[in-house]
Amino acid sequence: MPNSRTALQQTRIVDLSDDKSIYGVKLLADMGADTVRPEISAGDLLRQRGPFDDNSGDSLWYTFFASSRRHFTVDENSSASLYELNALLGCADLCFVGKENVLAEKVNLDAARSRNPKLVVVDVSPFGSTGPWRDFKAPDLVASALGGSSGVTGDHYTPPLKLFGELNFMISGAYAATAALAGLNHARESGEGQRIEVPVHECIASSLEHVFMWYFHHEQFPNARAPALERRGSLHWTNLYVVMPTKNGQMMVTPTPNMEAQLAWLVEEGAFQDLLDPKYEELENRRQYFARLMEVLREWVATEDSEELFRKAQERHAPYGWVQTVADVAKNPQLEARSWWDSLRLGDRNLPSPGVPFQFSDTPGSVVESEWLATNGSSVLEEIGWEA
Amino acid sequence: MRPLNGIRILDFTHVLAGPFCTRLLADMGADVVKINTKMRAAANNAPNSPYYAIWNRNKRALALNMSEDEGKDVARSLANQADVVIDNFSIGILDRWGIGFDEVCKTNDQVIYVQMSGMGAGGPWSDFVTYAPTIHALAGLTYTTGVQDGGPIGVGFSYNDHQAGLHAAVAILAGIEARRQTGKGQQIDLAQFEVGAAMIGVSLLDYFANGKVAQPCGNRPPYDKFAPHGCYACRPEGDDILDERWLAIVCRNEDEWQALCHVMGNPDWCRGEAFKTMDARCENAEALDSHINSWTKERDATTLMYALQEKGVPAGNVQTGIDLAESDPQLRAHEFIRFMEEPHPGLGVTFADRLPIYFEKTPCDTYERSRTLGEDNVSVLADWLGMSEHDVRSGEENGYLT
Lengths: 388, 402
What we know:
The complex is a heterodimer.
Chain A: E1 12-16, H1 22-30, E2 34-40, H2 60-65, E3 70-74, H3 79-89, E4 94-98, H4 102-106, H5 109-115, E5 120-125, H6 140-147, H7 167-190, E6 194-199, H8 200-205, H9 211-217, E7 242-245, E8 250-253, H10 259-269, H11 286-301, H12 306-315, E9 321-322, H13 326-330, H14 333-337, E10 342-346, E11 349-353, E12 359-360, E13 371-372, H15 380-384
Parallel strand pairs in A: 1-2, 1-4, 2-3, 3-13, 4-5, 5-6
Antiparallel strand pairs in A: 7-8, 8-9, 10-11
Helix pairs in contact in A: 1-7
Chain B: E1 8-11, H1 17-27, E2 31-36, H2 50-55, E3 60-63, H3 69-81, E4 84-87, H4 93-96, H5 101-107, E5 112-115, H6 132-138, H7 141-144, H8 159-182, E6 186-189, H9 192-199, H10 201-210, E7 229-234, E8 245-250, H11 254-263, H12 278-283, H13 285-296, H14 301-310, E9 315-317, H15 321-326, H16 329-333, E10 337-339, E11 351-353, E12 358-359, H17 377-385, H18 389-398
Parallel strand pairs in B: 1-2, 1-4, 2-3, 4-5, 5-6
Antiparallel strand pairs in B: 7-8, 8-9, 10-11
């Protein structure tokens, strides 16, 4: 059921997304959009995605990505059932479709849009509906390779790496949510719905921070040797952020944004080595100085305790980042203090669940358990209470 | 007509996460007024820096010296006219300028007021300073992206800044929809750290449900049984690491596996017991990768990609920035890279990578170069506050519009 007094409680969504945009639907559903996700008789294929709860056998992937929705079964071979699904679209504000959702191929979107001209359809696919690669298959790893995120991730001793888990499709998901709400804004203002395409390939390519800047403006950067940067481990394109080993862990260390303060700290610690050499004050030696500074930092950081170093850095407003595992994140005091976690029921247990990544002062969202509608597709419209 | 025409955004953001959010909204037609000041216009916040130019296209530039009382007065007046006020400073800066949410909402109860600080308001880490690499480390992204026993590598670009920007855009548009229903604006507190933590949501659930701590796994899927699933070295184009060519190949079912075998010429090893089923292939993934590497290493990556895709096998070149900018036929067909018509005064010709959202009825095809410091003082202050050019020039001379 939709949360009470939420930002999107007046927004109705039919969710026929696949893994490329399901995260976007989640964002909207967790903000209270009244979201239904129909499933084929054999069950949503995404329920087969791991990991699984060792107790209940439920897909944790699905529990996370398909939160805050109402589910029902549609017999994809029954015309009555599909008729009802199409009727739902006549009452919806938004519909997300993805190529790998079987039901997205079964609905008649053109007819639905004729009946419901305000309907906004968000179609997220690997490459869009035009162009030479439009029929290419691109699961996460392939999308990551072609989109450019793998090309800059990894180290010289590894292959190019894909980002962990679903990070690539969470980008296209977030773009899909943005597109949907922009389309909804236009529909509310003008009464005009529309179809919106979101190609995953371009979503990834547009989220690569420095990559295109480096290509077009690399001559402005003293450390550039080519219009592309190789994969270089944790070393940032500026050469001023990198993960360094501490005495008992790993720390992302940077002397930015206040280089003088970092030097003063090293002096205070007696770890400055030759950094006060007047030669480094010469403009032509600045690059050499930055490289030396990172070397000195590496030697010093290796002698420090992670937790203590992180605390001292942040007290000095130095943006060091202590490399944390998932277990560490689960116990993080900041997330706890901000009551970020929600709770979900899995089998017979209540478990903490990652919360909504924005807090609204008046219309807070929350991750709520999805529920099954009592009826199947043939009477779902009546049960959910949607009217055109 | 673009989908966000008519929405006014007062933009105090800097670096990447905030400017990326407001760039998205500007690309979709919102009137985004980017505030900058001579005193802070350095490094990545300098309008002549390529970094700044990329994230601030399609916005108007207003120079405002917030150390002057008159500058703060102008900011307050602008906030009264805004649909959205947004910043990504540490918590409290805008309050000190007298344009915090509590002040602004007294005279503009319609405002959507977004603070996208690193850690959010409240909590023991609220004052912590973060950039994307900091968030990646703290949120588990650095630890998990890498190879087994290889030490933390992490994402090779500021991923979380883009995600925080996208999430802020979603939150703002949801706030506007809520305002349409309630008649009131509100405050939105977006912690970039919480966005980062949400990115490993599945792994967090796995930890809470099963006590398992996600480990880096290279290009293998962390939770699903798919093999092959990797990046394979192909014939290099030279000796430099940038000359390496790699091909990602994934088989998620028997059909894709059989098609791969077919393209490889059905070698004997494909029919062995070790690779007969998906379970077996996962069990023997290292040996499988070795066989595939032997096949790819002397071959051209692009030729293989097309051959595999034609037979239904998901495969893709690992593209560098050069590939994306010069030879990606899909991006070319969609005119993904465009050049700004008007040269940038400091940078000359600048480019735009287009918004990857294709609206059927409200296309977003307008791309205008980023503006120099205070370049739009006159037009912004006339449009938003009805100020005359004479008064604006006088403010510039007196230093509060600089």
